[in-house]
Each structure stands twice: as structure tokens, then as C-alpha cells.
Amino acid sequence: MTLAAHVVVDLPPFTVDLNVEVAAGETLVLLGPNGAGKTTALRSLAGLVRPDRGRVALDGVVWDEPASGRHVAAEHRPIGLVFQDYLLFPHLSALDNVAFGPRCHGAGRAEATELAATWLERVGLAAVQRQKPRTLSGGQSQRVALARALAVEPRLLLLDEPLAALDARTRLEVRSDLRRHLGEFAGCALVVTHDPLDAMVLGDRLVVVEHGSMVQSGSPAEIAKRPRTDYVARLVGLNLFRGRAHDRVAILADGGQLTVDDAVEGDCFVSVPPTAVALFTERPDGTPRNVWPVTVVDVELHGGQARVLFDGAPSGVADVTPSAIAELGIRPGDQLWAGVKATETHAYPA
Fold this sequence. Notes:
- There is one protein chain.
- By secondary structure, the protein is of the alpha+beta class.
- Helices cover 26% and strands 36% of the residues.
- The protein has nine helices and 21 strands.
- It has helices at residues 38-46, 94-104, 109-122, 138-150, 168-184, 196-202, 220-225, 230-236, 322-328; strands at 2-11, 14-23, 27-31, 53-58, 61-65, 70-71, 79-82, 156-160, 188-193, 205-210, 213-218, 239-246, 249-252, 257-259, 266-272, 278-280, 290-302, 305-312, 316-320, 335-340, 346-349.
- Strand 10 (205-210) and strand 11 form a beta hairpin.
- Helix 2 (94-104) packs across helix 3 (109-122) and helix 4 (138-150) packs parallel to helix 5 (168-184).
- The two termini are 34 Å apart.
């Protein structure tokens, strides 16, 4: 079972143009900022938005092909769909919400009810099956929506920001449960999210989307280790510089240069963890192989750490302790020196 889709939707001011393939038993995550076109792509796969060009097929069965006029309506596609706000029927109990899908697919009332009860038990909600959505917590509503999507035995499971409506504590628990259910799902699964942690936990493979196009794809580990855009670098918490390397020296596109530890030649990216950037009030001697003057732009406190944003050649961010901020007296506008050891850099081909 394989989903093979090329979705092109004209969505001014840009066009959503994505190629996605999902194998049976695999979960693919579309990760990107709000407004990048992820949900439009998902709705096209569901049959809710007709693509302007391209082709959508599951197991070789074509669902959409504008060139030939082929379009299979959403209700005739073997899909399960979980929306961001879950869209549970408010007048139906949790049990009847889950039974609704099987009933629409021709199951009798008793069969659909039995199937719904089984799924609610599987998602840990057997005790609330008679309750209406208004009495359920966010986490419970999410599980009911997931059970409803799975109860129709879909071949393609589509989840649009499935954890976005949950508070932080509930999100942690539900994320873990959702990963387990996705791991047990035999069909193709596609998840849309803007949250990098959700993507890293839920996805077997990620496709990063910006302005309607794929900018990077790979496993969560590959994405985290080798970001290829500033957006991805920010998501995984790295400084990312573009440049051209020769003999372990990268001349950076935005100014400055870095001695690197990797033997890369030609166009490259150089990533540096913010924790690897040291700040000094005077030019340091000795240890760091990369030293350059910077101007502090801002200081942000994040729990037990402080992030210093700086301009320079190159510009970037450094993570230091609040005590270091106090000792150095760092404030916006201060002139400092930044230092990074070559061994703390990671250079790779562009």
C-alpha cells in the first residue's frame, strides 16, 4: 500500500506544489510554519480541495488527475481524517460519534456500536463512551476523534494539527499515545503540524514545507543534524551559515569566515549550536579558533538559560547562563567578542 501524490494548488500569493510518497505502515509528517500550505495539501489528499494540477493515487488507483478530469469525492475515498478542532458531533455521545463512520459505510447499528466500543476501549475511553463532547477534556476529545477516524478501517489516515488544541501537560501524554497508535496502523499515515517536537516524535519521515514547497526531507535525525534552511535551523535550535569551503575554512555568504572541523569542499552549510558560542568582553587568546566582534541585539531569558542575539560577521545566537549575563553585564548595544571552536562546528555540502 503506497500513497503517491503530486499536489499542485494555486493559492495566491504562492502555489502549493508538493510531491509526497508514503509507504504502508509509515507516518509522514508535513512540518512548516502556519500558512505554508500544509493543510491545503492534506485537504487535497482527502478530496476536500481539488488540485489544479498533479496526480493523487493510492495503490495505483487514481483519486485525482486534473489533466484527465478524474476526481474521486472525499466520501468515496478510504480515508480517516482528524481535524485540528476534532469536529465531533455535539449531540452524539462518544460512542455514537465513533459508530457514525461504520454506519455510513453500511454497518448495522449493533455492529457499528460494538466496533465503536472496541475502539474507545483501545484508546482508553471505555468509561466515557456515553458522554457528550461538551463533557470531555481536550485529550479525551482528541482520542474520540482518532477512534472515529480509525473505526472505518481507512487505508490512508490524515491528521491536521492533531495536538494543537491541547495544553502542554495533556499534549505530552496524548502525543505518546498517538505515536503508539500510529505505529500500530497498517495503512499510510500523514500528519500536518507546525510543532517540531510533535514532528520528531510522531514522524518516521519529515517533509519540511515553506511557501508551498518542500525545502527538506528525511528522517527526524537527518533533519535535526543537517538543516538546510534558516527556518529548519531555528526549529532544531542551531545557528546555520551558508558559505563556500576550502581546506577546512568556510567563507560565509553573509560575511566572515569559520574554520571548520569537516573536510568539505565547495558550497556548504555550517551549523553551530548556540551553546557552543562563547561570549567575551575582550578578544580571547588561545582556545577558540574562530573569534569575531559582535554587537548584542537582544537578551532573552528561557528558564535557566539566556539567549543572546548578536549582529556580526556572522550574526547568530549564543546560549549562556543568567549568571554569565550578570557577570559580563551584557545588554543590547554592547560590543563583545564571539568565539567558537572548530570542533564545535558541523559543515556539510549545500
